[in-house]
């Protein structure tokens, strides 16, 4: 673990992946996570901010927005300590009792974030991790299949860990744990990490030398409203913004699907909202933009359009000069190798062989509400049309370069 007292000062290079929710950032980050030229956090940074009480409803902004003025010495200290225990890279499955104990300790800590209302005893966690790790190839790098098998084995041994709140194949959950049914509400009264939760896997913490030499990638869609805050958090770092865009029909449609999905609970509201089409009235899903209260009695597709528009407007206003705008469609398209080469060149980071292999083979769906397919939004095209034609949405659509609807996939 790096020194928590000066973690943020040690970081010399930060890349903020800025996008709207359902804009493809999860898939993009999962691909970039395979590069040994970069540092990452296990998941999004909202739990770090929650530890410093810099999330709704504790801040004066009444939303997800944060400025440099929110970065008090106390908040900086808390956030730095949390980041120091998380920054790193994916590791290999344990080969000895010491590594196994470290993995169990890390998982026990993450479980407290994911399930704050559940008391997982350390001994039970260690026993579950020991069992689950016995099913993995020791010493080998974790792959999607071994991570899924490991997660399901944990759920089998830890009552209270509902696998439906993780990014797992529904068919695999049903086959392995048929008695556990998909939930119909939030995982608990308090949310620290937004579901679908981060999958548990081996993780190598960053070494001090890496902090000063490797770019640290940070992805959380709500960071669209925190760019000045994050720049202030890393005073000695070059801060770049990778602005990830996606055509509005696909992104807004994805937001509508997510609001109706069993996950993505972000904010427990003090008063129920009246959003027409949203099934859970006490929860606001995804990012909480400034001015959100004016939308609590609108239709769900209007709210989704507002969330998409607001995020990109704030990114454009605050991304600065050292920014690169990339279309998500290009990152997963046939020319993706050229696009990733452009990104790594912009970051001044080598595109290592492991990253090149992932670009070639691709990844399974990440954080998907259903199986991905091109133009999935066509099924909701008539409902989306009024929102897409809203002058503010249409203006932003053109500003982001999506003038030709024939290219929207």
Q: Which characteristics define this entry?
A:
Rossmann fold, 4-stranded parallel sheet, alpha/beta, 409 residues, 17 helices
How does this structure look, described?
The chain has 409 residues and is of the alpha/beta class. It has a domain at 1-89 and 218-409: P-loop containing nucleotide triphosphate hydrolases (Rossmann fold). 41% of the residues lie in helices and 9% in strands. The chain is built from 17 helices and eight strands. The chain has helices spanning 7-10, 25-32, 46-51, 73-84, 97-114, 122-133, 144-157, 170-176, 208-213, 227-233, 248-259, 300-318, 328-331, 336-347, 353-361, 381-388, 391-399; strands spanning 13-18, 88-90, 203-205, 216-219, 238-245, 265-268, 283-285, 323-327. The strands form three sheets. The protein has a four-stranded parallel beta sheet. Helix 5 crosses helix 6 (122-133), helix 6 (122-133) packs across helix 7 (144-157) and helix 11 packs across helix 12 (300-318). The longest helix is centred in the C-terminal third of the chain and has 19 residues, at 300-318. The protein is globular, with a radius of gyration of 21 Å.
Secondary structure: elements and pairs:
Blueprint: H1 7-10, E1 13-18, H2 25-32, H3 46-51, H4 73-84, E2 88-90, H5 97-114, H6 122-133, H7 144-157, H8 170-176, E3 203-205, H9 208-213, E4 216-219, H10 227-233, E5 238-245, H11 248-259, E6 265-268, E7 283-285, H12 300-318, E8 323-327, H13 328-331, H14 336-347, H15 353-361, H16 381-388, H17 391-399
Parallel strand pairs: 1-4, 1-5, 5-8
Antiparallel strand pairs: 2-3, 6-7
